[in-house]
Structure formats: C-alpha cells, structure tokens
Amino acid sequence: MEHVGSNGAHAVYLALRRRFADGDLAPAERLTETALAASLGVSRTPVREALGRLQADGLVAPAARGVVVATLSREEIEQIYELRAGLEGQAAASAARRQAAGLVAPVEIRAIGEAADEVERAIAASDPKGSARANLSFHRAIGRVAGNPFLEDALHRVWDRIAVSTVSNLSDTDWAKTVIAQHGEIYRAILDGDEPAARLAAEEHINAAARIYGAAH
Fold it and tell me: pTM of this prediction?
C-alpha cells in the first residue's frame, strides 16, 4: 500500500502520475475510486479530484463504473512518437548547447551518465519495468539539463502517455542492447557540447523506438 499523506488531491494526482510513468497501469485497466483510495490510504474525495485531473491530461477515460486507463490507437502512437522525437531532439540539443556554454553543473552531467548506467544494469538483470524506470530517469535528466521548463513539462506529458510502450520495447533483448548503445551516443554528444550530434542521436533513438513498438504491435 502506498500512503500519500495528508496533502489531498494533488498528492494523490502525483502518486497516480508516477504509476503511469512507471508503466504500472495497463491500457484499458479499470480504476475505481474505492480501490485507489484503499491503496493510497486516503478518502475517495481526493481520488475523485485527482482522476478528474488525469482525465483532463488524457491519461484516463470515463467508463461505466469509474474510469479506465486511456488507450492509444496505432495512428496515435505514431503521432505521439513523432512529437516525442522532436521534443527529445530539442532537449538533447539544448543540453549540449548549455554544456558547451559552461552553464551545466558537473553533477547534472553525471546524473545523465549514472542514469544510463542504471539502464544497463536493469537490462542485464532482465528487468523490463526496472529498465523502463531507469530509462525514464535518463531522459528526465536530459530534460532538466535542457533548462527549459516548458519543454520539460511537454516531455513529462508525452512520457506518461507512452510508458506502457517503453516497458514493451525493453522486453525485446535485442532492442534493449541497442538502447544502451544509443544512450551512450546521446550522453557523449551532450558531454562534448555537440548540439547537432546530440539532436540527431536523440531523434534517431526515439524514431528507432517507434519502429520497434510498431513492428511488435
């Protein structure tokens, strides 16, 4: 049971967003106020408010009883990956540009490299969900270094919508090995302050992920 304390609907909302980001919720999975309230240790009122916000985010859809996790059509998956490639490319390019200008603290750069290492460890342990969480940490670290809160917010919304596809992809052992190599390319380009290379590596990485998911579904 995950207790969110007494911070009300916002805390419940953040806790449920984490479940989406971690790939813990399956497409079309039914979510009820009663079950969520029990699992989070809160009353139904903040859960109801949080579900309203999640519906506005497009993460859940109304159902006969409660809500269900929103599903994406094949066309929507293609569209969101196309958007993600542009956003991730911009984030990596901005991170590299700021690195070249001396605007990035060493600890921020290390966080990207450490997240990449954690992805590799989770993949070696044959842990798709752990790999997906570490993968998100890697991309989030780049988003922070990009230094654009509007870009970072857009990325968070995309990441939550496609978390399930990330877990699916990382169950493919060949793709998982490719991820390790591509993360390394992105990290090195940012570390070197090479803006064009960082953008290209990030865009190619996301486009490749879209192809892998499309081929499997």
Answer: 0.83
